[in-house]
Write a structure and sequence with these properties.
By secondary structure, the protein is mainly α. The chain is built from 6 helices and no strands.
Length: 144
């Protein structure tokens, strides 16, 4: 117990280009949404499938808007006009809510299925966490 293994060598993570995490997350989100839509098309009514497709599409759009909003907030160009960027950051929630409300009011979708589709980011995070955990184990240095 007096000796523990070194944490992680930098080899597994240092070679990763900037933006690789975001591109992996968006790819995994797309795959999860596509898989969920295909499975619900086979197993569920069309309103459930439409709800998952709408929720998944809005989740992808929301993630893209989040990226651009945060980049704009952190960039030097917005030092002069941060209010506009903050307004856009909040406006994306209102747009997503309005779209879901309008389509649900028309009874075109299942609201629980839409919420499931909107949660596509969560399994994508679990996939990325599993990947990072795997790499941490593989690139761990010996305990000698």
């Amino acid at each position: 117990m007096s000796r523990i293994a070194d944490n992680v060598s930098g080899q597994g993570f240092a070679d990763e280009p900037i933006g690789a995490l975001e591109s992996r997350l968006i790819r995994v989100m797309r795959a999860i949404v596509a898989l969920a839509v295909i499975m619900s098309a086979v197993l569920a009514p069309w309103r459930v499938t439409a709800g998952i497709a709408l929720g998944g599409g809005l989740a992808l759009l929301n993630y893209h808007w989040l990226q651009t909003s945060v980049r704009a907030l952190l960039s030097e160009a917005t030092v002069k006009r941060p209010r506009v960027t903050i307004t856009r950051y909040i406006l994306r929630y209102l747009i997503v809510g309005a779209v879901v409300f309008a389509v649900y009011a028309l009874q075109w979708i299942s609201l629980p299925a839409t919420i499931v589709g909107l949660c596509a980011f969560v399994p994508a995070l679990f996939v990325e966490a599993s990947r990072q955990f795997y790499l941490a184990i593989i690139y761990r240095e010996g305990s000698s």
